[in-house]
Amino acid sequence: MSEAERDAVIRVRGLKTQFGSHVVHEDLDLDVYRGEILGVVGGSGTGKSVLLRTITGLQTPAAGEIEVFGVDVLGRGAVRDSLDDRWGVMFQDGALFSSLTVRENIEVPMKAVPGLAPDIRRELADLKISMVGLPYLAGDLYPSELSGGMRKRAGLARALALDPEIVFLDEPTAGLDPIGAAAFDTLIRNLSQSLGLTVFLVTHDLDTLYAICDRIAVLSERRVLVTGSLADMLEVDDPWVREYFHGPRARAAFADTATGTED
Amino acid sequence: MAARQERIEFGLSETGAEAVLSLSGALSIRTVSVLRQRFAALGFDRSLVVDLAGVERIDTAGAWLLVDLEARAQAAGGSFGLRNVSDTTALLLDNVRQARPEREDRPAAARGIQALLEQIGRAVVGGLRYFADLTGFLGLFLARLGRVLRHPSQFRLTALVAHCEDVGLRAVPIVALMSFLIGVVLAFQGSEQLRQFGAEVFVVDLIAISVLRELGILLTAIIVAGRTASAFTAAIGSMKMREEIDAMRTLGLDPGVMLFVPRILALLLMLPILGLIADFMGLFGGALMAWLELGISPSMFVTRLIEGTGVGHLLVGLVKAPAFALIIGVVGCHAGMQVKGNAESLGRMTSGAVVAAIFAVILADALFSVFFAKVGI
């Protein structure tokens, strides 16, 4: 397989996470390759967000190894800390700091860059605000004054503040209207192409999977059941996967994309 | 790899009408400050070409700098070109070019004396409006109470009992301890002063009148305001936040009947009882201290108490309890209903409710004092 030669930026082996006696993941393996958009799907409670939190080091697993750019996420020290500006995380509701304006939120990670002049920082924050499709004046608003979709965009802008190599997106399109969701998809695709971004995205949105994901990983039975392209998913002989990718909603989403590409 | 230390090399060669700026290294957020200073010195009198052949890495900050330079060159009427641009860089530049924000200015805020006057005006109007709102809320409570009296089947007795336990029973230890200590302090301080005149025995009157008339009920109300007004605001506010109150309305349930009546009624019932407990404990503390410090025996204390202090003092104190209960309950529930959809407003409203309730209780107590003095009770 050529996949073995590809550059795996995230490498998870034998991961086990559990809360008390409840085992969420067991013997979970996953690779994410440079420059791809990986969509992680799975039923409710299969630990998609837990996986995201574990890879980003927010949750300590019971067993297993996680490497990002060859660095052990569970380790300590300067090498581990250097990961912090190579990845960005967008949480489900943006997770913006409520006492700061949107612009100040985006400037927070930039303040760690030595020698970056404050006026440039401000202009770059304005650029990020505009890149994620927010109006200029949104920069002066506080998170509580934004709608859910705007908070997500602002959260993405903060995740992208330092042009990280990997972004983790937790349900980026949940709760957005279809137009907003489609715009968000395009935005992610665009940024991934122009910045060479690797995207790890947890989603329930079939349209997002069809529109932008290069590869899909299905979480089921406490592990990554199967990974592959969308075409591969249609071949998989597992009841849950079949229902997911052959269900009425999946067919509708797939039909839309198919006609979209023919045009 | 080393993302933390990035270099940028900068070379300028001028040939005739064309200036070629060759960059090599990383054009990134870490080098952009240095580059911008260099770029500021560039003139646009001849056509400017930026050669990116040596650039190993470019990010949005770098692309922004190039686009910015391009815009400045075009604004100055010079020509500008890029050389050796890779496909991904071109895509990135396009993205940044499209996204380049248009500066918009917010409407300027008024400054100086005018702004100050405006602020004061707003605060005054806000205060009056708040007072009117509270009065409205009191009216709402009374109307709902009236409805419940006419239709007793709507009344939620279980909720009332639960709130009575929460508001009353659970507050007994803290209220009792507080007023016991107040009695002790009064006796101790009073005896020091009265001993100078040899009038130690008047310490009984001092304790009885101050505890029964004022301190017992006032301090109880303050403690209850801190405990209960905040609890009401937090409970109702979080229900408001999670749209439970809207859900109630759509189900035909009246939040006034369901939430406010049991809570405020529980306070109305419990505060006089708590006040009575406070009075008793205050006298007990005072008597104990008078016995230990001045040798006034408990039986002497009781005799003196009955002789010197009319039952009127107790009534003057306790008659204030329902008024304080209404104030605390109305302020707490009203603040809960003002909570918006986010957690910050819940926190702000909760602390605001406590301050407002305590302030209103003290204000009401002052008004009562003036009133009783005028009518001569």
TrEMBL record, chain A:
SUPFAM superfamilies: P-loop containing nucleoside triphosphate hydrolases
PANTHER family: PROTEIN TRIGALACTOSYLDIACYLGLYCEROL 3, CHLOROPLASTIC
Keyword Membrane: no
Species of origin: Salipiger bermudensis (strain DSM 26914 / JCM 13377 / KCTC 12554 / HTCC2601) (Pelagibaca bermudensis)
Domain ABC transporter: 10-246
GO molecular function annotation: ATP binding; ATP hydrolysis activity
Protein name as annotated: ABC transporter, ATPase subunit
Classification via InterPro entries: AAA+_ATPase, ABC_transporter-like_ATP-bd, ABC_transporter-like_CS, P-loop_NTPase
UniProt KW keywords: ATP-binding, Nucleotide-binding, Transport
Automatic annotation (TrEMBL), chain B:
Membrane topology qualifier: Multi-pass membrane protein
Protein's UniProt keywords contain Cell inner membrane: yes
SUPFAM superfamilies for this protein: SpoIIaa-like
UniProt KW keywords: Cell inner membrane, Cell membrane, Membrane, Transmembrane, Transmembrane helix
GO molecular function: phospholipid transporter activity
Domain STAS per the UniProt entry, residue ranges: 20-94
Any GO CC annotation of this UniProt entry: ATP-binding cassette (ABC) transporter complex
Residues annotated as transmembrane: 167-188, 215-236, 257-277, 314-337, 349-373
Protein location: Cell inner membrane
Main location: membrane
Pfam family, one: STAS_2
Function: Could be part of an ABC transporter complex.
Family membership noted in the UniProt record: Belongs to the MlaE permease family.
Protein name: ABC transporter, inner membrane subunit
